[in-house]
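Key result, reporting period 2: structure in, sequence out.
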């Protein structure tokens, strides 16, 4: 299967958009730029991956925050806290503040990914 992805696709697939032509274009782009992506690709990757992770973990963060800030003894249990949130606000309560969390963590991801890419280039240049 992998040899099909590595070989050059037939001419008929290069003119249309297909999985084979996409692989070919990616390989050509990678060869021409020596494997380096532009900085905005790293920034976009950082925002999407970090922001997506923040969005998916928002319910866990909401439950944890409720447990930490509640003075009730029943809120020291994850199940009871989740049940209380659902009873009070419904499913929307688990995603309270999702937009602020997603954006702030997404921008932090941009910084982390760009810094990682630059330090990787720096260290690789020092080694070689």
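The corresponding designed sequence is given below.
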């Amino acid at each position: 299967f992998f040899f099909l992805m590595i070989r050059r696709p037939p001419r008929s697939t290069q003119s249309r958009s297909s999985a084979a032509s996409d692989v070919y274009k990616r390989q050509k782009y990678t060869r021409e730029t020596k494997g380096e992506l532009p900085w905005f690709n790293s920034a976009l990757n950082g925002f999407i991956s970090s922001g997506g992770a923040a969005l998916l973990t928002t319910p866990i963060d909401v439950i944890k925050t409720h447990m930490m800030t509640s003075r009730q003894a029943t809120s020291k249990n994850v199940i009871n806290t989740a049940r209380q949130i659902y009873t009070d606000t419904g499913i929307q309560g688990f995603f309270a503040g999702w937009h602020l969390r997603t954006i702030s963590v997404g921008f932090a991801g941009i910084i982390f990914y760009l810094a990682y890419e630059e330090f990787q280039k720096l260290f690789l240049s020092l080694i070689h």
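The radius of gyration is 23 Å. The chain is about 75% helix and 0% strand. This case is discussed further under Risks and Mitigation.
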